[in-house]
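Please decode residue identities from the backbone states below.
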């Protein structure tokens, strides 16, 4: 669990989480979400709490990498990582986030679909990066 490979994968994943999250949801997503917000007000902070953003990215990347290491069976190909990432993206983006649509006024159906697609892309790239690290870095 705390192998060199897993820790390096966690760091790579945390960097992608921070930069990719900004790229996908802020740069690309903001104009796509425009007009698809729900009626909830005061939901988003003007400026995110970067310390907690980084901590969340580290936790998520560690869990993602650790689960990947248990399921990979030493098959660390890019396609294997992409498939794993797509499944996690499906779970989070179209599973977990669909609950937001059902229980909160955060977004409309189009916004939920946009968020689901962004999650698929995000986790697919994370899976690819994770598989590359596991393929290139060998734990002692």
């Amino acid at each position: 669990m705390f192998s060199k490979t897993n820790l390096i994968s966690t760091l790579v994943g945390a960097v992608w989480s921070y930069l990719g999250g900004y790229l996908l949801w802020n740069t690309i997503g903001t104009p796509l979400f425009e007009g698809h917000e729900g009626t909830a007000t005061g939901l988003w902070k003007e400026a995110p709490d970067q310390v907690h953003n980084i901590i969340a990215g580290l936790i998520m990347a560690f869990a993602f990498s650790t689960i990947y290491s248990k399921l990979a069976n030493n098959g660390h190909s890019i396609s294997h990582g992409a498939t794993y990432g797509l499944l996690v993206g499906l779970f989070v983006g179209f599973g977990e986030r669909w609950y937001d649509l059902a229980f909160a006024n955060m977004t409309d159906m189009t916004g939920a679909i946009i968020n689901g697609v962004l999650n698929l892309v995000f986790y697919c790239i994370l899976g690819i990066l994770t598989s590359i690290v596991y393929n290139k870095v060998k734990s002692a």
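Observation: Residues 30 and 81 are 28 Å apart (CA to CA).
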